[in-house]
Design goal:
single chain; mainly alpha; 2 strands
Length: 181
C-alpha cells in the first residue's frame, strides 16, 4: 500500500471514528476522545514509520495527537440545534438539519485537515534525511495547522471553566507541546 493511500485511509477512518464519538453517552465522550488521541498516535506511527528516527517519534507525531484532541474537545461544543439563521427563526426540523450540516462539514474538514497534516509531517520526517524543495511550504502549512490545533485546544480548555491555576498549567502544557511541533 502506498504512503498516500495510507494517508487517505487513516484520515477517513479517524474522521469517522471522531464523528462516532458523538454517538457515545455524553458522560463518556471525553474518555472516548482521549482514547482516540492515543489511537491517532499509533496509526500515525504506522503511517510514517519508515522515516521516523530518534526524537522524531515525539516531534513529528505530537501534532496529529493534539489535532485529534483539539478537534474532539471542540466538537463537544458543536450545536445540536440552530434556532436562527441570518435572523430568520427556523422550524425544529430545519434547525436540527442545519446543525447536522454544520457538524458534518466540521468532520469533513477534520478529515481533509488530517490528510494535509500527514502530508506535512511526511515532508518534515523526510527532510531530516535529505533536502526537499517542499520544506518551506510544509513549514507554512504546519504553522497554520498548529494555529488551528491551538485554537481548538484552548477553546475546548477554556470552555471547561477550570480554576485559574489549573487553566494556566493546562495551557502551559498544551503550549509547550505545540511549541515542540
Amino acid at each position: 500500500m502506498s504512503k498516500r493511500a495510507k494517508f487517505v485511509l487513516v484520515s477517513a477512518i479517524l474522521a469517522v471514528l471522531m464523528w462516532s464519538t458523538q454517538l457515545v453517552v455524553p458522560d463518556h465522550r471525553l474518555q472516548a476522545i482521549l482514547g482516540l488521541g492515543a489511537l491517532s498516535y499509533i496509526v500515525s506511527a504506522w503511517v510514517l514509520f519508515e522515516d521516523l528516527k530518534g526524537i522524531e517519534w515525539l516531534t513529528v507525531l505530537i501534532l496529529p495527537v493534539l489535532y485529534t484532541l483539539g478537534a474532539g474537545l471542540f466538537s463537544l461544543f458543536l450545536p445540536e440545534f440552530v434556532p436562527r439563521f441570518f435572523g430568520t427563526r427556523l422550524e425544529a426540523e430545519t434547525a436540527r438539519t442545519l446543525a447536522g450540516v454544520v457538524r458534518s462539514l466540521f468532520w469533513v474538514l477534520f478529515g481533509v485537515g488530517y490528510y494535509a497534516l500527514y502530508l506535512t509531517e511526511n515532508i518534515f520526517s523526510v527532510a531530516a534525511i535529505r533536502t526537499i524543495q517542499l520544506l518551506r511550504a510544509a513549514h507554512a502549512v504546519g504553522f497554520l495547522l498548529t494555529l488551528v490545533t491551538g485554537a481548538f485546544l484552548f477553546e475546548g480548555l477554556f470552555s471547561f471553566r477550570l480554576p485559574f491555576w489549573a487553566m494556566g498549567l493546562s495551557a502551559a502544557v498544551f503550549g509547550f507541546l505545540l511549541f515542540l511541533q
